[in-house]
Amino acid sequence: MAALYLHVPFCAKVCPYCGFATTPLPSGKTSERLVRRWLRGLELDAESAAEGPLGEVPWGKTAFSTFYFGGGTPSILDGESLGEAVRLLRSSFRLEPAEATIEANPESLDAEKCRLWRELGFTRLSLGVQSLDDAVLRAAGRNHDRAGALRALETALGSGLSVTADLMFALPGQGAESFLSSLRELLGTGVPHVSFYGLGIEEKTPFAQRAARGEIGIDEDLYAECYARGAELCARSGLERYELSNFAKPGFESRHNSAYWRGDPYLGLGPGAHGYDGANLRYANHRFLSRWADGLERGEPARELDPLGPRERLEERLWLGLRLAEGADLAELRAFDADGAFFSGLDARLEPWLKRGAVRRDGDRLRLRDSGWLLLDEIAAALLP
User: 163 Cβ partners below 8 Å, 6+ apart?
Assistant: First the structure.
C-alpha cells in the first residue's frame, strides 16, 4: 500500500494556535496569483517525484491506494483550481484509491462543493469543527460559530461522503464540560469517525507568545480528564479507539492515516509536506510557498532529507506501533535490532509498566492500556536501551 498526501497551504486566516505551513488567502487578484503559483509548483513537484529517485520507491510506477488533500483549508479552493490539482495528480501517478479524503472548514463547505468533491473522486470528508462552544471558538480564532458547524455537519452527513470530525480540548477558557458537551453533541449526530486533540503550544505562533507571557498554558490534569472521559464517551457511542486520537465505528477507520502509523510508504507533495519511502528515507518540503515553488522552478527542490538507520527505524516503529490499538509488533522490531541491544533487557524495562497496568503483552504484541495512552512518549522512551 502507498499513500499520497497533497498539502493545500491556504486559509482564510491563520488560527493563533496553528503551526502548520499555511498562507492567508486574500480576495481578488492576489489570491489568483498565489493559487496559480501553487498549482505550477504542484505540477513540477509531481513531475519531479514521478521521474526522479526519491528514496527507494518508484513513485511514478506506484499504485496509490489512498490520497489526502490536507492543509491549510482545501475547501477554500474553487472548483476549477481543485479540479486542476486532481488532474495534475492523475496525469503523473497511478491513483487507484480505496479512500480519498479532503479537509474542510465549516464556513467553506456547502452542498454544491460536496457534490463537486464526489465528482472529483473524493470519498471522505474531514471537517474541522474544533468546538461547539461559541466562546471557545472565538478564543481559538476560528471563523465559524456553533450554528455554522452544525449546519456544515448536517450537510456533510447528507452528502454521500464518509465524514470524520475533529475536536480540540484544553483550549484557552475551555473546561472539561465544554469539551465533553461538544463531543456528546457531535456523537449524537451519528458521525462515524471522530478525532480529538489536546492543545499544543507551537513555536512562533500567537499562542506561543501568549504562553511566554504567562497568559495561557497547558493544564495537565485538565488534559488527562478530557482525554480519558472523551474516550469513554466515544466507546459508549460505539466508536472504538484504533489510534491514540482517533475513534471510529467498525469499518470507518482512516486508511490513509493508518498508512502513516503502520510505516507504509507515502509521497508528500506541496509546501511543508512530508514523505517516507517505507524504508530508509524521510523528507520534508520547504514550508514556505515561495521557497518551495522557486526551488522547483530552478530544478532544485527545496526539501530536507532525513536518512534512517536501523536504530531510528526501530524507535519509529516502536513509537508509531504503540499509538495503535493493535500495538507494536515485536517480531517486526527484531529486524532492526541487529546488535540485540533492544531485546537485551527488554523484559526488565517492560516489567514496571506491566505492573502499573499501562501496557499489556500479548505474544509479540505490546499494547497500551487505558492508563498508558497519555504516557505513550514516556513508555516508548523507557523501553529503549
Answer: 124, 125, 127, 153, 156, 157, 191, 192, 193
Q: How far apart are the first and last CA of the chain?
A: 32
User: The pTM is what?
Assistant: 0.96
* E strand map for the chain: 3-8, 10-11, 23-24, 63-71, 94-104, 124-130, 162-169, 193-198, 240-243, 246-248, 266-269, 274-276, 281-285, 303-307, 328-329, 359-362, 365-368
**What is the rounded radius of gyration, in angstroms, for the C-alpha atoms of the chain?**
21
Residue 227 C-beta-side C-alpha neighbours within 13 Å: 20
- Average pLDDT of the chain is 96
Tell me phi and psi for residue 265, to 5 degrees: -70, 140
Per-residue cell: 373 = 495512552
CA-to-CA distance for 83 and 86, rounded, in angstroms? 5
Residue 215 has pLDDT above 80, yes or no: yes
Q: Which residues contact 353 (CB under 8 A, 6 or more apart)?
A: 359, 372, 379, 382, 383
Rounded CA separation 24/14 (Å): 6
- C-alpha span between 27 and 46 (Å, rounded): 27
Do you know the residue count of the chain?
A: 385
